[in-house]
């Protein structure tokens, strides 16, 4: 079966698995223990992975906090900042995001909204994007404590203008977080040049790493001063007190290796995904002209992610029909039972939402594999 649901999750890369195996077998030490070699080896492995993630993202290793994935990173950053700064009387309790974020951001905002924070969900354009002008105006009006805007959308694949937004937040000094889960390995991410991005979330299983591991990037205020936030997990004080709990060394090693590969293969990956996307798009345009509509813009998008409507065709029926041959989705894997909040916010009717499927490619797919789409009439 052809797997084309790589925005939902990816197959673990063989080199990642190979790097992890020793830490599931002979190297089982706890990196918080001391003196004996099993502990020291685990500590060294975690330090190396931290360097690999930092090098991929262009930040310092001590700005990398290992979490269980992007859901936790989003929760940790948003709730952590809201609580740490917002608990004082008279403190700013305003938080701003968009209507098309991943549920781990939307629901965290809703949670905080129910607890006295003033949360706002901004509108987006027809491609689920915000504009810099719109954010500039909204931020000037409400002076939010934290703004969270995703880098690339998981359903449509549109990219937000993160470099310009970073410049804006660097200038106004307000906290800015971006969920970069879908863009790692597909878009250059260099935090050295994005000083206004104070927080970033990423996940291992979207980039050929294992499930259950990710990172929250919490940038320092200066070389020596860490940004404080209230942790989600209290306990032994691991991860610089940001996230207690014994480190999942094997998963961390896997994330590190996946990060190293994502950095090394970025250019080839983008080139191949762009080629494959073009090839598949041409098939659709030639064979199904007038029967399909693309949801994403041709530019400023994640390469290899195609969201399209089959006019008059129910997406669930289509996906079921194809399920023996090709794995696709109707949008996000996390909310597949509900009509997409992303497409609705981007102005699509319920009917259009129910005709939409998402195809997310990976570089190992061949043109021949994609012939299957020529059979759709
Ligand atoms: N954010 C975005 C944009 C995603 O696409 C996903 C996964 O679908 C997540 C967050 C959640 O990631 P994780 O599965 O690591 O919790």
Automatic annotation (TrEMBL):
Ranges where the Aminotransferase class V domain occurs: 3-370
Keywords: Aminotransferase, Iron, Iron-sulfur, Metal-binding, Pyridoxal phosphate, Transferase
Keyword Transferase: yes
The protein's required cofactors: pyridoxal 5'-phosphate
Residue stretches in coiled coil: none
Substrates-to-products reaction catalysed: (sulfur carrier)-H + L-cysteine = (sulfur carrier)-SH + L-alanine
Stored InterPro entries: Aminotrans_V_dom, Cysteine_dSase, PyrdxlP-dep_Trfase, PyrdxlP-dep_Trfase_major, PyrdxlP-dep_Trfase_small
Example GO molecular function: transaminase activity
Keyword flag Iron-sulfur: yes
Pfam families listed in its UniProt record: Aminotran_5
Stored SUPFAM superfamilies: PLP-dependent transferases (SSF53383)
Gene3D superfamilies: 1.10.260.50, Aspartate Aminotransferase, domain 1 (3.90.1150.10), Type I PLP-dependent aspartate aminotransferase-like (Major domain) (3.40.640.10)
PANTHER family in alphabetical order: CYSTEINE DESULFURASE, CYSTEINE DESULFURYLASE FAMILY MEMBER
Family, as annotated: Belongs to the class-V pyridoxal-phosphate-dependent aminotransferase family. NifS/IscS subfamily.
Protein name: Aminotransferase class V-fold PLP-dependent enzyme
Originating species: Saccharibacillus alkalitolerans
């Amino acid at each position: 079966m052809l797997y084309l649901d790589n925005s939902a999750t990816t197959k673990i890369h063989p080199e990642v698995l190979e790097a992890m195996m020793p830490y599931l077998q002979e190297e089982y030490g706890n990196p918080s223990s001391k003196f004996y070699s099993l502990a020291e080896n685990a500590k060294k492995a975690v330090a190396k992975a931290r360097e690999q993630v930092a090098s991929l993202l262009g930040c310092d290793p001590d700005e990398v906090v290992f979490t269980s994935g992007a859901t936790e990173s989003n929760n940790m950053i948003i709730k952590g900042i809201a609580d740490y700064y917002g608990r004082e009387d008279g403190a700013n309790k305003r938080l701003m995001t968009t209507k098309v974020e991943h549920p781990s951001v939307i629901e965290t905002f809703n949670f905080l909204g129910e607890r006295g924070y003033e949360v706002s969900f901004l509108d987006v354009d027809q491609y689920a994007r915000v504009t810099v002008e719109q954010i500039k105006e909204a931020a000037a009006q409400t002076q939010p404590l934290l703004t969270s805007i995703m880098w690339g959308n998981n359903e449509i694949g549109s990219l937000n203008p993160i470099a310009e937004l970073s410049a804006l937040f660097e200038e106004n000094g307000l906290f800015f977080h971006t969920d970069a889960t879908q863009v790692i390995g597909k878009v250059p991410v260099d935090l050295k040049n994005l000083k206004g991005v104070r927080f970033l979330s990423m996940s291992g299983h979207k980039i050929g790493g294992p499930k259950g591991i990710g990172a929250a990037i919490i940038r320092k205020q200066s070389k020596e001063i860490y940004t404080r936030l209230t942790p989600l997990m209290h306990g032994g004080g691991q991860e610089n007190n940001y996230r207690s709990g014994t480190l999942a060394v094997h998963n961390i090693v896997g994330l590190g290796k996946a990060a190293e590969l994502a950095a090394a293969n970025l250019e080839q990956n983008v080139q191949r995904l762009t080629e494959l996307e073009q090839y598949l798009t041409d098939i659709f345009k030639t064979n199904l002209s007038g029967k399909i509509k693309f949801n994403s813009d041709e530019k400023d998008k994640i390469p290899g992610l195609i969201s399209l409507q089959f006019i008059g065709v129910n997406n669930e029926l289509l996906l079921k029909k194809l399920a023996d041959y090709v794995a696709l989705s109707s949008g996000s894997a996390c909310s597949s039972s509900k009509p997409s909040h992303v497409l609705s916010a981007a102005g699509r009717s319920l009917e259009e939402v129910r005709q939409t499927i998402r195809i997310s490619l990976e570089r190992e797919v061949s043109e021949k594999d994609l012939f299957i789409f020529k059979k759709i009439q």
